Alpha/beta fold hydrolase (Nocardia tengchongensis), 503 residues
Amino acid sequence: MARTRQGLAALAVTGLAAGAALITAAVTEPPATAASLDRYYHQRLDWKSCDIPGLDGMGGQCADITVPLNYAEPQGRTTTVVISRIPATDPARRRGVMLSNPGGPGGSGLDYFVDTSKAMTPEVRARYDLIGMDPRGVGRSAAVNCRWPTGFGLQFAGVDAKGFAESVATQSDLAARCAAAEGERLPHMTTRNTARDMDVIRAVLGEDRISYLGTSYGTYLGAVYMQMFPDRADRMVLDGSVDPDRYGVVGMVQDMGAPNEAALDAWAAWTAEHDGEYHLGATAAAVRDRVQRLIARAAAEPIRIGEFDVDAHSLPLVLYIAFDSPQNYGRAAQQIRELADAADGKRIEPDENLAGSLAVILRAQPRDMSPAMAVLCGDVGAPRDPAWYWHNLEAARATQPVFGALANNITPCAFWAPPAESPTAIGNSVPNLIIQATGDTRTNYGGALAMHRALTGSRMVTLQDVAVHSILGRYPNSCVYDAVNTYLADGILPAADLSCRDE
C-alpha cells in the first residue's frame, strides 16, 4: 500500500505538471450593454434548407445567427450559431417560439423536434414555431474539435492503481490536445454564453419571450436562462433534471454511480430471466459476476472483437451507453454475450449496435466528446490532484463495484484552464414544469428534486420506478404527456406535484 501511495503521489506531481501549461488566470466577464449588442439583436436571417431529411420533410428551415465569441468584447471576434425552425401548424393560433436543447452538453439539436414533437398534441403544435439549435461549439455551430484519438472524455479507471495511472495519463493528454487545438475559443464555450446566445435568438426572431424544452444538460441550460433572463422566459419544460448545485463534471458524474449500479442489478435480473437466449447466468448474481470477471479479463489483456481491442477502461462504457433506458436491456445482453465469446477466443464480428458503440468509445467516430468537455470544464472547475480521485474511487468500490470506477475517475477538467466566469447560482420563481423518472441513470432523481427546490415556481411530475433518462418522445406515458401538453397549450401547471405510474 505504501508503494501504491508513493506512486499516486508521483502521479499527482506529474499530472499537475502536465496540466500547468493549461492553467491561466480566471477572468470574470463584465456584462455587455444592450447598446453594444444592438447589431446582434437586429440582424436579418436568411432561411434555407437544412439538408436534414426528417427536418426538411416537416417544413423545417435553417439559418445562421452571428453572436459575439466573447460577450465581454462584443465588438471583437464573432462566432456562428445555427438554428432550425419548424413553423406552427396554425399561424392564426400561434403563441410564439419554443427553443430546445437535447442535452450533452455537446448534443446537436437542429432536428431535436423531429421525434420529440410526436409527443405533442395538435393543439401544442398549432401554437409554436419549434426552434432547434446547435449551441456554440457544437455541430454546425463551429464545432469544437480537439482531435481526440478516442471518443469519450469519461473513462472507467480500471480495476487497480495501474489502470488509474493510465487514466491520469490519458485525461491529461486529452486536455492538452484541446488546449493546443482550440485554446483561444475554449474559455467562451460555456452555458452562460449559450444562454446569452438564446436571448439573441429570441430577439432576432422578434419575440418578447421564449418557451423552452430541455432534456438532461438542457435542463441546466434552461435554468440558467431563467436565472439570467427571468422576464424573457415563458413556458419552460425541464425533462430529466440536473442538480444545479452538483452541476459540473465531478458532481454530475459522481451522481451517476448509484443509479447505474442499480440499473446493472435490474439488467442482470432481466438477463437471468432470458438465460436461454443469452447464456450469461441463470441468476442476477451470476450475471453480475460474469460482467465483473469479464472486466477483469479485459484489464489483464484487451479483448479482440472485430477490429477493436476492448480494455477495462472501455468495456463498461458499453453498458453505460445502453443503460439510459430499460428498452435497451436486450441490446446490452447481446453485446456482453458477444464480448464474452470474443474473450473466450471465438472470432466474433460485433453486431451493428456494438460496433457503433465501440467506434464512438475507441475511435471517436463519427465524433468525439470534446465539445461536451469544453462546456463542462469551461463552466465549473475540478480538483487537480489525482490522489483525490483515487481516494474517492477506492471508497466507492464497496457499493459500486462496476460504476464507481466511472463515477469517481479523473477527467480532462482536472487539467483544464479555470473557468472565465463563476457558475450560475440557480434560485428563482419563474413558473416551469419538471418531469423526471425515479430511476434515471444520467440525471438522478435526487438532482431533479434539488432543481425543483431551487426553482420555487416549478411543479414536478414524477414517473415512478422507471430507469429511463428523459421521457418526452422517448418513453410514452399518458400521465406525464398530458401534464406537459396541458401546460404548453394552456399555460396551466398542475395544482400540485404529480406522481405517474409506468404503463
User: Anything to note?
Assistant: The first helix runs from residue 2 to 20. Confidence is low (pLDDT under 50) at residues 1-30. The radius of gyration is 23 Å. Residues 38-143+188-249+423-500 form a domain with the Rossmann fold fold (CATH 3.40.50.1820).
